[in-house]
Amino acid sequence: MTRDELLAHCLAKPGAWEDQPWEGDVVVKVGGKIFAFVGGPESSTVGVKCAPSREAADEWLHRYPDDVAVMPYIGRSGWNTLRYGGGIPDDEIVEAVDESYRWVVSKLPKKDRPA
Fold first, then answer.
1. pTM, two decimal places
2. What is the pLDDT of residues 38-84, one digit of tens each?
3. Buried b (16+ CB within 10 A) or exposed e, 82-97
4. Comparing C-alpha atoms, which of 76, 72, 77, 79 is closest to residue 100?
5. What one-character-per-residue DSSP string does the chain give?
6. Which residue in 33, 34, 30, 26 sits closest to 4, CA to CA?
7. How far, in Å, CA of 78 to CA of 55, rounded?
8. Closest listed residue to residue 83, CA positions, set 38, 18, 19, 49
9. CA–CA dist 55, 94 (Å, integer)
10. Phi, psi angle pair for 82, to nearest 5°
11. Which residues are CB-neighbours of 17 under 8 A, at least 6 positions away?
12. pLDDT tens sequence across 76-109
């Protein structure tokens, strides 16, 4: 999987849009909330909400210790950084992005959820 493929997958989600709140650092949002931290052009990682709690998100750390890290600042809320192109299969990266999108959408007010 390439960064462009990952970004395209994120942007194909209903209501998804690209933003750069920090210079050169791409995120993908839905309803004004980030569901994927894609990073800059040289990035090979994606930050996603892996679970509703830190304890549940730690499963990723145990399965892929060389390719997963707790995200700084928001990791305590179940966010991890996943490295693609490494030991994590592409289909699991895609599923993690899909799950992050679902978690974020589920917390949006109903009026802000994509149709």
1. 0.94
2. 998 898 999 999 999 999 999 999 999 999 999 999 999 999 999 99
3. bbbeeebeeeebbebb
4. 79
5. --HHHHHHHHHTSTTEEEEEEETTEEEEEETTEEEEEEESTT--EEEEE--SSHHHHHHHHHH-TTTEEEPTTTGGGTEEEEETTTTS-HHHHHHHHHHHHHHHHHHS-GGGS--
6. 26
7. 8
8. 38
9. 21
10. -110, 135
11. 11, 28, 29, 30
12. 999 999 999 999 999 999 999 999 999 999 999 9
Joined tokens for residue 82: 């996943």
What is the token pair recorded at 41?
Answer: 């052009």
Output the six-digit token pair for 7. Answer: 């970004």
